[in-house]
Every structure is written in C-alpha cells, then in structure tokens.
Amino acid sequence: MIRPVSIVAVFALRVIACLWSLSWYTTTWAQVPPTTVTVRATQVADAESHAPTAFVSEIDPQPYAQQVETVADALSDSVGVSVRRFGGLGAFSTVSIRGSSANQVQIYLDGVPLSRARNETVNLSDLPLDSLQRIDVYRGTAPVNLGAGGIGGVVNLVTRPPSSTPQTQLSASYGSFDTRKVVASRTQQLHDIDLIANVTYLGSAGNFGFKEKSPQAGTPTAERGIEQTRINDAFDSVDALLKGGTSLSRHLRLELTSETFFKNQGVPGLAPTLSSDASLNDVRALDYLRFLSRDLLVERLDLNGTLYGIFERTAFKDLHGQIGSGPQDRHDHNTVVGGNLDATYYLGTNQVLGTFAELSQETFSPHNDVAVGTRREPVEERLHFSWAMQDQVGVWNDRFVVAPTLRYEHLEDRAASARSDFGLFVPATSRADDLYSPSVGAQARVAEWFSLRGNIGRFERAPNFGELFGNSGSVVGNPTLHSEVAVNRDVGFVLDVPTLRWLDSARLEYSFFDNDVDDVIAFVLTSPAVGRYRNFAGARFQGHEVSVQGTLVSHLRAALNYTHQDTENRDPAYLGLQLPGRPADEIYARVECLAAYGKVYYEFNRVSGNYRDPINFDHIPSRDIHTVGAALQPFEALTVSLEARNIADDQIADVEGFPLPGRAFFGTVTAKF
Hints:
Layout: H1 4-28, H2 46-49, E1 55-59, H3 62-65, H4 71-76, E2 81-85, E3 93-97, E4 105-109, E5 112-113, E6 132-139, E7 153-159, E8 167-175, E9 179-190, E10 193-204, E11 209-212, H5 220-224, E12 226-229, E13 235-249, E14 252-266, E15 279-294, E16 301-318, E17 328-347, E18 351-365, E19 380-395, E20 400-415, E21 419-421, E22 424-426, E23 429-447, E24 450-461, H6 465-469, E25 475-476, E26 484-497, E27 503-525, E28 531-552, E29 556-569, E30 585-595, E31 598-607, E32 610-611, E33 619-620, E34 623-635, E35 638-645, E36 652-653, E37 659-660, E38 664-672
Parallel strand pairs: 4-7, 25-28
Antiparallel strand pairs: 1-6, 2-3, 4-5, 6-7, 8-9, 8-38, 9-10, 10-13, 11-12, 13-14, 14-15, 15-16, 16-17, 17-18, 18-19, 19-20, 20-23, 21-22, 23-24, 24-26, 26-27, 27-28, 28-29, 29-30, 30-31, 31-34, 32-33, 34-35, 35-38, 36-37
C-alpha cells in the first residue's frame, strides 16, 4: 500500500523541482524579448493537417471534463472506436480501433509514447482528461511524427498549452456511488514564461448494484439474476500536470512538461473469483523537454526535438490468490528514457518532406514477494529505434495530394536470466526484430467542400515482453513468436457543407475499411491454469464508419456517429466465426439545445451484442444507454451542471461479463476567474 504521506511528499518534491527549473529558465532568458512562434497556416483541423489523407477524429475533451467522465468515455463516443471496460468508473479500460486488439493501438501523450514493451495495452482510466486540449484519434493511417504508428491506429492526447492570459478554474463534482471529483487549474505568464498547472482528484466507492446470473441455467433465478453489490471497487486517484514554455527567439521555443499520476484501488475480480481485499496501486511520473524551431537553421525547415523519461511503479497484492493463479504480492517497475527528432521541410508550395527518428531504452523489473522456488521473473529490456519518412506532394493547386510513407523499426529484446516456469526451463532469452511498414495515401479535393480519401499500408507489430517471456503467474513465455502483419485499406469522403442562412455548420464523413491481419498473437490455455501465447492464422476486419455533426440557427447542435464492423476469425479451428469482444454495431447520438444562459442535452449510446469466447457460444446482450443533462450559466464565470446517466437503469455488462453501473446522477459546479 502506498502511504498518503509518501504520495504528498513525492508530489511536493516534483512541483518544487519543476518550479525551480522554470525559475532558472526565467532568470537565464529574461533579456530575450517575448515572441510567438508562428505555426504555418492551414485550412484544416490541426490533427488532420499532420495526416491529410487519414481518417481522423479530433475530440474536444471539455464537455467530458465538465462531468464526472474519463478518457474512456470520450473515446467510446468516437466513430470507429470501441472501448472495453472491466467495471465501472476507474476500472481497467482498453481501446480498440476498427476491430483491432488493444495491443495494436499506440497511445501517446503530446507525442510521447505511453504504450509499453511489457504490454502495449494502456489503461484508459489512468490517463489525464481535465488537462487536455484535444484527443486525436487516427484510424488506420497515422502521421509521420508519431513514429511507428499501429495496426489499428493511434490515439494522441494533446495537453492544453500555457497561456499568457491569467486564469484560474476550480470545479467540484459529486454523484452516485459516493463519486467525487475536484479540479484546480491556473495559467499565467511569469516574466517571459507561459505556465499552466492542473491538478485533478477523482475517487469513488464504486459500490453499485448489479444482477449476477445464477449458475443453474434454466431456472427462474438464472433468468432474473441475483441482486448483488459490487464490493472492493473503491479507488482514489490524483493527476497533476505542470507545463511551462518560453520563446528564446522568434525562431525557437522551449517547453518543459511534468505529469504525475497516483492511484489506489481495490480489485474485486469477477464471479466466482471475487476478492474482498485484492488491491492495485500505481504511480507514474512522465517528464519531457521539447524544443520547437521554425526556419532556425534552414529557411522553410521546421525542426522539433524531445527528450523524455517515464517511470511507473505498480503494486498488486492478492495474498489469498483469489484473482489469477496463486498468491501475488507484486512490485513491478517500468523505466523508459528516450528522445526523438521530427523534421518537416517545405519544398515550395506543393511538396512537403517529413522525417522522424526516435531512440528509447525500456527496462521492466518485476518482483513477486511470494513467488515459489525458482519461478521468478527476470529483468526484461528493450532497445527500440524507429524511423519514418513521408513525401507529401500536391498538384493542381493541391486539389490532388499523394503521401507515400515508409516506417522502419528495430527492436532488441532481452530477458536477463534463466528461470523455471511450471516445470519448463526457460533460458535467458534475447531476440531482434526488424519491422517495415510502407503505406501510401491520397486525397482528391473535388470541390472546396468535398474531398475523396483513400489509404493502403502494411503494418507490423512485434510481440511484447508478456508474450515473449511470460510471467510467474499463469503465462509461459514463447520466444519463437512471429510478428503480427496487417494490410490496411480504407476509402471514403469528407463533406463540409457551406454555411447557409439556417445552417451554421455541418460536416459528413464516411469511410469503408478492409483490414487483414496475419500471425495474430493470442493466448491459449495449455492446462486449466496455465497457458502461453501463440500465432494464429489471422483475422479480417471490414466495416463502415459514418460521422455527422452540425449546428442550426445557433441554438441546436447535433452529432451522430455510427460504426458497423464485420470481423472474421481465419484460424482453421474457428474459421468463419466472429472474433470475441467486437460488437457489430455501435451508435452514439447527441442533441443539444443552446440558450444564452445554458444548455440541455440528450445522449444515446447503443452497443450491439457480441461474444466473449472464440467459439461464439457465450453471448453478451446489446445495451442501450440514455443520458440527459443540463448546464446553467447564470454568470460568465460560473457554471452549474447536472447529469443523469443510464436513466432506463439498464443492467449491463461488458468484457468477460464485468458489470457496469445502472442509473446514476452527478452534479458539477465550475468557477473561472
């Protein structure tokens, strides 16, 4: 258990260190006149400008931050995206894009990779929301400045930039299941440095009611379910972001960012392996120093460089072995240090060359205090180098743009010592992988308001530490795994309707995707309690994505996202069956009525039924969630919000049958000054 005093002490030291560094910058460069780095003009959204042929969603996190919601909630409403939840608020949540696994989606914070070599799956509930400016979701094709990309796509969390205009914002929320949230932020200019600080506390008892199915199938009790209360589901978390930036000249800007995250939570598990005392504690510290230059060395050359370091400590305790296999008292440390360089050269008005290089070293140090005998996990290391280059060429006044891209990755993985896993001797292991991912995209601007787009590419994913080396629990390593290989194709259009007398704005986007993945890595049980990862023949994902949004007469705003996907398992043992955990249809709709002193809104989410298992026997039913809310703004500096979720009190479950909350109510008060 992490002591609260230790958390406060570590947090205070990091705040002092960051402020001391910023003060040093101030005294050193106080004589430099304040300037603003000019970003090259573009007629499209910022996220789209980095990948003009890609299908990308730019999510505004503020409506979610104003409520008691998380990054998982924001992503689940986006087109082409599926979020899998292992419980209610604060529970482990993962993201899938166009049917991909969570491992096949890369997640970044301001371009710094959060996906780890131990397991690329990032817990969405541990990511900051209130400090974000936007969330960029690239479905399939990703921009060259995000490195290796991913088979499914890329999610980049972009933090709010500091501002020279002083502002303080405070908000407090409370709701069902003893859920509480407090946010404090401040932005201002100190001498020549723009500063922003944001601290978010989020916690909940998580003791919501749900219906547990009876194991006696066919009985009335099995049909109705047994009323239960989710136990050992409480959590408390704190996320703090400190960010400062200064312009050294009109060509060069320097930024320093420090993000710290703490979380203590219970782990209730899933029947029949419920636990009343299993716990998980997490501490993450992420720091990066970045320079951004425009025309500094060479005219028309943009050059950005980043040095970053990430430390994460997770402690999982299950002394009675109620979750997983055997007792666990784990203390796992993950350290990453790295740097990248991103260069963009503008060759005239119709051609842009972009290149990106990144080098990082990652070390994973696992330890289980109650491990038996020689079943101890070795220290695992990865050296990772990635390089990417893109040539974006436009003709006919950029009415037609083509963007060929080549990505290369070199990985060196090593498990430092030998061990015995369930009677099998596993020697010290090392391997090297070279991955190549070529792709090309094109866009034809038929009219100023109508564009056609299409992309095709080949993408690879190397196996991670968990798949290669196993653990001291129930997974035996498999160093002979092949990398996953995918061929992704998509085509569609974007229509931006011109402003009419009654129509303020409207946008329609449609895309069709067709992806094939070979050598899919999946977990297979070799005995009732032990298994290992192996390569399967492959899978196919096809689907349609539709996104519509618009505003009428400045008082009515509407949005609709619809995703349909058809997934097929191509392994001979499951040929033609659907892949588990991939719902065929997802719909999100929101309607807002806007007035001078506030708004009212209605949201609808539908997730169709899907399967828990590869043989398509255990079916999870569809779920429909209705939400209503209102925000009253009696003064410009004060907002009062109320929200009722799942008003029909639908008893629902998600991944592997983990229950989700029923009807819930939340209120938020926000003040700005």
